[in-house]
């Protein structure tokens, strides 16, 4: 399990990256199917994100998935909801 302090530091780092790339319009397309090499996840506030499959190997993202499994469970027939709001992702 990742240290909560380390998780908070990494979340802040992701926020800085998100702000730096805020003008990038590629993230704003809406499609019912994730693009090639991506998976779709949702946040608790309902925001939808396409995450590159390479992120699944990162410690932070795997910790978010573990927390999601504990909080919401994985039923296999629904969408993956991360236990955070869109500002973190």
TrEMBL record:
InterPro entries linked: SAUR_fam
Pfam families the UniProt entry points to: Auxin_inducible
Any GO BP annotation: response to auxin
PANTHER family, per the entry: AUXIN-RESPONSIVE FAMILY PROTEIN, OS09G0545500 PROTEIN
Family assignment from sequence similarity: Belongs to the ARG7 family.
Protein name from the UniProt record: SAUR40-auxin-responsive SAUR family member
């Amino acid at each position: 399990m990742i240290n909560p302090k380390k998780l908070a530091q990494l979340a802040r780092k992701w926020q800085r990256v998100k702000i730096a790339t805020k003008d990038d319009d590629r993230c704003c397309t809406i499609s019912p199917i994730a693009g090639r090499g991506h998976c779709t996840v949702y946040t608790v506030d309902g925001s939808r994100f396409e995450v590159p499959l390479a992120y699944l190997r990162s410690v932070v993202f795997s910790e978010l998935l573990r927390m999601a499994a504990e909080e919401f469970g994985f039923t296999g027939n629904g969408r993956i909801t991360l236990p955070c709001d869109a500002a973190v992702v």
